Amino acid sequence: MRKNFKLIIEYDGSSYHGWQRQKNRKTIQGEIEKAIMTITGKKIALTGSGRTDAGVHAFGQVANFYCDTEISPEVFQRGLNGLMPKDIIIKECNTVDEKFHARYDAKTKTYRYRILNRTTPAAICRQYAWFIKKKLDLDAMQSAILHIIGTNDFKAFEGAGSPRSSTKRRVINAGLQQKEKEYLIFEIEADGFLRFMVRNIVGTLLDVGLCKITPDDFKKILLSKDRNLAGATAPPHGLFLMNVKY
Amino acid sequence: MRKNFKLIIEYDGSSYHGWQRQKNRKTIQGEIEKAIMTITGKKIALTGSGRTDAGVHAFGQVANFYCDTEISPEVFQRGLNGLMPKDIIIKECNTVDEKFHARYDAKTKTYRYRILNRTTPAAICRQYAWFIKKKLDLDAMQSAILHIIGTNDFKAFEGAGSPRSSTKRRVINAGLQQKEKEYLIFEIEADGFLRFMVRNIVGTLLDVGLCKITPDDFKKILLSKDRNLAGATAPPHGLFLMNVKY
């Protein structure tokens, strides 16, 4: 009987060319599909909730695949975790309604971006945060963030080469918290994300934190819909896909 | 003029044979001494607050060294961080009173041990916690911990091959906290530690958490002064030297 399997996946994206399968390149989707094929002997197409770019991490990526098999979800999970590299872990594996689609059914996604803001780089966990030496103005950054909450056209924060029917997205929550004194954690939940959207927002927020621009300038950039006015794209290694809600 | 330099050091111990200098083996002390020699052209002996074992990490190891030099602490810090591998970072470098001795003057040290307690191993930060699959009894572990607070003879938790004048130590604080649902963080501050003491305490606490022994059994093991009764030595990669107080 054909079953629909739902996976919740944690991965360290450091050594991968992103989520999406590519010929001759190591990707998360590619590794998981390869392992499923080893177990089932069948070629399977895995559907992710969305792509993550090269170097981006995930605590709760969601994907599904169809398979005509008697193998139980528990056995699948153990088998996949046994076969795959240690930087990809299947946290959950369940059979779900045959209509469940990891991408189309996603209601919101939450991303986190970690900034290490102190005078020296990290020795521990150094591949999981963007190191910024200059002291950032947290209050100014928090004021700027308020402007992105709600439904907005995020064209100014969209990466090049990503054709979309609309560049409007609804941001349900966004905030910045200080953690263990030296880390700044930016968290954002939205009904969808444009390519590089989080990293472009963070890059522009950084300009606010460095007092190169004001929170009001940040708002003007958002309203301008002009990518050229926004800041640099923050590096991928500070970014985490936290969870996907259905 | 001979100056006394004090360093605060963060390191990821994953790829080192511990703190202490060894011939033909990569150690933290060895790397720092080598970098100091490159900068000054002089052979320097670095004094650490104490050794950490192979694979153990530090957020705040402290060390000092004497050097007759005109180089400022700021230039030393930048030079060392530029010369050393990225998993060792000099967080602070200052000149201090010539009598300051990183080991003899240490009043207390604080260690942290991280346990990941969930059904699957970590993909992210996997080299920084001990993965325990079976659900641990937090309350029982916390009850056991109360027995080590105060001055006790920790002979039952001492590793072999470590001659000491006394095996009594004063534990000022010890506690266990849950973090992000799946992590257990054991923290302990004491006026000194025997070899493997934290890791042997954690290994025995694990037996309490797994309900193999009771908190009362834990107390009996402590009072027995018999290493054979205590649990296994927890692996080094979950252990962090947090700070040293003077």
Report what the structure shows:
- 2 copies of one chain form a homodimer.
- In chain A, helix 1 crosses helix 2, helix 3 packs across helix 4 and helix 3 runs parallel beside helix 5.
- The mean pLDDT of chain A is 96.
- Chain A is globular.
- By secondary structure, chain A is an alpha+beta fold.
- In chain A, 23% of the residues lie in helices and 31% in strands.
- In chain A, strands 1, 2, 3, 4, 5, 6, 7, 8, 9 and 10 form a 10-stranded mixed beta sheet that branches.
- In chain A, strand 2 and strand 3 form a beta hairpin.
- Chain A folds into 2 domains: 95 residues, Pseudouridine synthase I, catalytic domain, N-terminal subdomain (Alpha-Beta Plaits), CATH 3.30.70.580; 138 residues, Pseudouridine synthase I, catalytic domain, C-terminal subdomain (Alpha-Beta Plaits, 2-Layer Sandwich), CATH 3.30.70.660.
- The longest helix of chain A has 13 residues.
- Chain A has 5 helices and 10 strands, in the order βαββαβββαβββααβ.
- The relative contact order of chain A is 0.19.
- The interface between A and B is medium-sized, with 23 and 23 residues.
